[in-house]
Amino acid sequence: MTDHADIIASLEKATGPGVLLDALVAKATGWVQKWKYDGVFCMDVPAGWVRFDGVPRACPPEYTASLDAAIALVERVLPGWSWGVSRSDEPGENGAPSEERYYADVFAPGAEYAADHATAPLALLCAAFDALQAQVAS
Question: Which of 72, 101, 125, 135 is 20 to 30 A from 93 via CA?
């Protein structure tokens, strides 16, 4: 199994969705980027990526922008696990509106990993990669 410490750090530092972060998530979960460099970037295959199941694609899903894509990833890489996402409605100091935060957890019997972030997809990805990292450690 792969050590996910770098991707966890990148996800935690993210301020919002990003295609480079989507690429890191894709590579960490079995996608392969097929590029050739000859002064400019050119694709080796009709699509620049090969999905985890061998299907060529133009690009990986927008994991960091789409909750649906993040959920599909969690269900693929943590089969049999459950997940949850919620938004904080807690007021800030003195009743002022607080910074919106999302909370996510992934869980299976005997294991639960939770995270919070500015967006729901990033919160869910953080929790999922924490779970994957724990599997690497054990």
Answer: 125
Q: How far apart are CA 25 and CA 46, in angstroms?
A: 22
Q: How far is CA 134 from CA 8, 22, 72, 82, 138, in A?
A: 12, 21, 20, 16, 6
- What does DSSP assign to residue 97? P
- Whole-number percent of the chain with pLDDT over 70: 82
Q: Is 102 helix (H, G, I), strand (E, B) or coil?
A: strand
**Percent of the chain predicted with pLDDT > 90:** 58
Query: Which structural domain, as residue segments, surrounds residue 70?
Result: 5-28+63-88+101-137
Phi, psi dihedral angles at 107 (to 5 degrees) = -150, 150
Strands 32-33 and 49-50, bridge-based pairing = antiparallel
| Domains identified in the chain, total number | 1
The rounded distance, in Å, linking the Cα atoms of 118 and 120 is: 7
Residue 84 clears pLDDT 70, i.e. is over it: yes
- The CATH code of the domain that includes 23 is 3.30.160
Phi first, then psi, for residue 136 (nearest 5°) are: -65, -40
